[in-house]
């Protein structure tokens, strides 16, 4: 939160046992940073002690509270009220002032020391943006990985090792929940095994801005992995790393781009201190342009991968309703920015299908992302699922300008933009999506008329529940 | 040393013999009073004015609480007991003598608070010798135009609270006793309300639940954020990040805001700073100013405004104070109050062992 006035108080509520049962994002963020967990005991000592006093006296308290996170000392003015009625025994917290000042230099040194200790113990850390793209990482003893990983999706660089599943991670992320103890292994490079844990990050506007993951070496898995490697000779090739673009040009571009985006976002969000408004906007433009370039690099990597004859996809058991919710969750912030509502099928229905989990998610994110990009603000994007004989389908319908019949095949061609430019698209998304759908023995089609929106339909082989 | 009051005084029907018996019983405690006067445990000299202010403050607060409780019990809970209604309508206190004789007003927390309030009145009076109440208010009014809406709001809230105090204190401003339950910290009100309920029950011989319900209601609706000191503290927290220490001065901020800002800078509490101003030569107060690196001229000027005994602080003696030592001592004073009390009590018995 930028130093200044709060338009609205930051609110929270404790139940009779002192657990934080609800909190606005800044308070929740602070609570998590202080070592608390959701619905757990309030982890801010001074505030918790005031809440106890409020319960003991059964009186309204109005006092200053000091707290600190990694970067700021926070001076708050807090009103604490005992609750009545159904919430009897609980207390309501209302923070009416919230002022941040950068922590003194001494603390920064101690953070550096902490990081050094982390490195010494072999602990790695990864910072991602909201779409899980790696913005920064420290992998002790694996410099090559640092070069390759920046800018890639976390899901592209790690495999999940049983009992952990990628679905668990994606579910946690779509709900902005902390991720705990997932077993992962690097897809390429040293193929080291780690235990991955992460906390969601909330930016100064209280919005979800990514994750900070820590990776601890998973020594048991390391041993098992080596045995498996010996047993399975000539395993399948990596999707990206053995291609020219994926292994050389992609990483070479991703690393500087990742740094540009990360630094521009830091400047734009004024994390390091106040900045003139127009400079902050320039920084946001730089970050936005950087992201566009990064998307292009990723698309080109994918393009190269899918055009290889050896390209294969996994046949995971997936549920299209679940996939729809996850993809929409990943784009919720972007949709909210344009006041667009994403209408989803009810969670109680299930439409089972066969397809690679990650690739189906990629297609849906592409379709919904396009729909958001080309729909008017305030419109509705409707996702529907259906079982049609041996196939399961999911449709994404928007209320945009629609696509003329003569253009409907063109949009699935490489670099086809239908004359549009400057909207962040690369002209590769639909081409890649269709190729992925084909590779999964399904299809991707469009129905549309000018002025009546577009309906994209992804069809995948069905499966028995 | 203290003018004790007895219920008997207020009852002309009681004979001289009974009065004499009561006085005789109280005289058994003369040694306690004399010992307190002969062997004071603090270095602070309690002037008659401070004692008088303290008594007046405590009486007024107790009376306000008993009136409120009786009024709430009668109006909100339909209590029709004659004595309780009479107490509610009365313009003098009834519970105070009972509580005083029972020793229920002698808790450390309460007496520390009363002393602080009395000394604050003293400081306010000293300040008003240098600047008018109107000028003090205009110092606050400049914050109303602050770009930060929180500061403007907090300044307005403080002005409102101060004008409420002034009207309650018959227009005397900072120099008057602002004895109003709205200004009480939650713990102090809580500590006073229940003994007052017990005293009303004893006076009225009524022990129905209406009185406790009324007390709970009074506590439940009390908002300490409406108190003048609380509002000054909030404004200080907001203002202190915007302004530099050059403006830190009671003539610039007014007493409440100045003390709150100095407290925030030094890590001490406002009550501690007020206590320091009562100590000989305001020595700890001077150290607190030195610890936050206030320039000598500014510190001297503040000292001159707040000191009441005509003493002087010279630039040489101020600059002589080692800054690091001052910081270390202030840090020690800002530690846990119970720990400090324990240290202080141990120091009394083993004088000379303290590193201070």
Put the structure in a nutshell:
The complex is a heterodimer of chains A (465) and B (356). Chain A is an alpha+beta fold and 465 residues long.
Provide key terms for this protein.
heterodimer, A: 465 residues, alpha+beta, six-stranded antiparallel sheet, five-stranded antiparallel sheet, 13 helices, globular, B: 356 residues, mainly alpha, 19 helices, disordered C terminus
Can you describe this structure?
The complex is a heterodimer of chains A (about 475) and B (about 350). Mean pLDDT of chain A is about 80; it is low at about 1-5, about 105-110 and about 230-240. Chain A is about 35% helix and about 25% strand. Chain A has helices spanning about 25-35, 45-55, 105-120, 145-150, 155, 165-175, 220-230, 245-270, 275-305, 320-330, 330-335, 355-375, 430-440, and strands spanning about 10-15, 20-25, 60-70, 70-80, 90-100, 125-130, 135-140, 160, 180-185, 195-200, 210-215, 315-320, 340-345, 350-355, 380-390, 390-395, 445-450, 455-460. In chain A, helix 4 crosses helix 8 and helix 6 packs across helix 10. Chain A has a 6-stranded antiparallel β-sheet. Chain A is globular. Chain A starts with 9 loop residues before the first strand and ends with a strand. Chain A has about 475 residues and is α+β, with helices and mostly antiparallel strands. Chain B is mainly α and about 350 residues long. Mean pLDDT of chain B is about 85; it is low at about 350-355. Classes of the chains: A alpha+beta (about 475), B mainly alpha (about 350). Chains A and B meet through strand 3, strand 4 and strand 5 of A and helix 8, helix 9, helix 10 and helix 11 of B.
Quantity of strands of chain B, as a count: 0
How much helix, percentage-wise, in residues of chain B? Answer: 55-70%
Order of helices and strands of chain B: HHHHHHHHHHHHHHHHHHH
Structural class of chain B: mainly alpha
Number of helices of chain A: 13
Strand portion of chain B, in percent?
under 5%
Alpha-carbon distance between the termini of chain A? 47 Å
> Unreliable stretches of chain B, pLDDT < 50, 5 or more residues?
351-356
Number of helical segments with 4 or more residues of chain B: 19
Cross-sheet strand order for the largest sheet of chain A: 7-6-11-10-9-8
The proportion of strand residues of chain A reads 25-35%
């Amino acid at each position: 939160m930028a130093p200044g006035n709060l338009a609205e108080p930051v609110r929270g509520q404790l139940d009779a046992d002192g657990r934080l049962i609800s909190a606005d994002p800044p308070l929740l963020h602070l609570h998590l940073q202080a070592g608390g967990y959701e619905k757990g005991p309030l982890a801010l000592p001074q505030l918790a002690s005031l809440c106890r006093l409020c319960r003991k006296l059964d009186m309204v308290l109005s006092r200053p509270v000091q707290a600190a996170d990694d970067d700021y000392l926070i001076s708050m003015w807090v009103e604490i009220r005992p609750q009545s009625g159904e919430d009897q025994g609980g207390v309501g917290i209302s923070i009416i002032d919230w002022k941040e000042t950068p922590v003194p230099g001494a603390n920064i040194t101690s953070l550096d020391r902490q990081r050094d200790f982390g490195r010494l113990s072999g602990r790695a850390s990864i910072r991602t943006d909201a779409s899980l793209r790696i913005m920064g990482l420290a992998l002790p003893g694996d410099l090559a990985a640092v070069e390759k990983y920046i800018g890639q999706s976390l899901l592209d660089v790690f495999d999940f090792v049983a009992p952990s599943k990628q679905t668990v991670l994606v579910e946690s992320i779509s709900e902005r929940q902390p991720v705990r103890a997932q077993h992962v292994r690097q897809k390429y490079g040293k193929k080291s095994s780690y235990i991955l844990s992460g906390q969601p990050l909330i930016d100064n506007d209280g919005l979800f801005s990514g994750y900070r993951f820590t990776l601890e070496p998973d020594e048991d898995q390391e041993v098992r992995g080596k045995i498996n490697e010996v047993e399975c000779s000539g395993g399948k090739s990596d999707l990206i790393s053995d291609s020219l673009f994926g292994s050389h040009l992609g990483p070479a571009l991703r690393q500087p781009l990742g740094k540009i985006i990360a630094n521009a976002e830091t400047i734009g969000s004024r994390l390091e201190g106040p900045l003139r408004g127009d400079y902050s906007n320039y920084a946001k433009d730089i970050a936005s342009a950087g992201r566009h370039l990064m998307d292009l690099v990723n698309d080109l990597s994918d393009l190269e991968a899918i055009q290889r004859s050896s390209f294969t996809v996994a046949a995971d058991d997936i549920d299209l309703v679940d996939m729809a919710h996850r993809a929409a969750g990943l784009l919720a912030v972007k949709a909210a920015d344009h006041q667009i509502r994403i209408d989803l099928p009810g969670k109680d229905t299930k439409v089972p299908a066969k397809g690679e989990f990650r690739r189906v998610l990629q297609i849906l994110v592409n379709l919904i992302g396009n729909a958001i990009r080309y729909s008017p603000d305030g419109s509705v994007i409707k996702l529907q699922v259906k079982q049609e004989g041996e196939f399961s389908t999911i449709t994404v319908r928007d209320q945009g300008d629609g696509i003329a019949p003569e253009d409907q095949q063109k949009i699935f061609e490489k670099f086809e933009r239908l004359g549009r430019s400057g909207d962040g698209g690369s002209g590769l998304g639909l081409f890649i999506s269709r190729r992925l759908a084909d590779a999964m023995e399904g299809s991707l089609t469009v129905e549309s008329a000018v002025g009546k929106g577009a309906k994209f339909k992804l069809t995948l082989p069905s499966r028995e529940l | 040393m203290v003018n004790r009051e007895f219920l008997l005084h207020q009852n002309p029907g009681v004979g001289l013999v009974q009065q004499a018996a009561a006085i005789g019983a109280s005289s058994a405690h003369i040694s306690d009073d004399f010992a307190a006067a002969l062997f004071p445990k603090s270095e602070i000299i309690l002037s008659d004015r401070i004692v008088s202010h303290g008594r007046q403050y405590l009486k007024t607060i107790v009376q306000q609480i008993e009136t409120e409780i009786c009024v709430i019990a009668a109006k909100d809970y339909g209590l029709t007991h004659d004595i309780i209604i009479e107490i509610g309508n009365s313009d003098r206190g009834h519970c105070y003598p009972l509580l005083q004789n029972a020793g229920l007003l002698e808790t450390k927390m309460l007496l520390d608070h009363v002393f602080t309030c009395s000394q604050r009145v003293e400081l306010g009076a000293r300040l008003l010798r240098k600047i008018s109440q109107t000028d003090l208010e205009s110092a606050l009014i400049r914050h109303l135009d602050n770009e930060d809406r929180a500061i403007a709001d907090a300044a307005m809230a403080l002005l409102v609270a101060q004008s409420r105090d002034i009207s309650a204190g018959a227009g005397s401003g900072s120099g008057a006793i602002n004895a109003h339950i709205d200004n009480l910290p939650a713990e102090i009100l809580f500590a006073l309300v229940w003994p007052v309920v017990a005293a009303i029950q004893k006076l009225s011989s009524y022990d129905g639940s209406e009185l406790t319900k009324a007390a709970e209601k009074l506590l439940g609706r009390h908002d300490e954020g409406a108190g003048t000191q609380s509002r000054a503290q909030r404004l200080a927290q907001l203002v202190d990040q915007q302004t530099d220490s050059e403006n830190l001065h009671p003539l610039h901020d007014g007493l409440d805001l100045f003390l709150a800002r100095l407290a925030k800078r030094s890590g001490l509490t406002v009550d501690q700073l007020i206590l320091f101003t009562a100590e000989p030569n305001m020595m700890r107060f001077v150290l607190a100013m030195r610890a936050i690196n206030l320039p000598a001229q500014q510190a001297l000027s503040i000292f001159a405004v707040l000191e009441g005994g005509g003493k002087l602080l010279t630039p040489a003696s101020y600059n002589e104070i080692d800054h690091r030592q001052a910081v270390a001592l202030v840090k020690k004073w800002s530690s846990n109050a119970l720990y400090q009390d324990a240290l202080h009590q141990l120091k009394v018995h083993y004088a000379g062992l303290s590193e201070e």
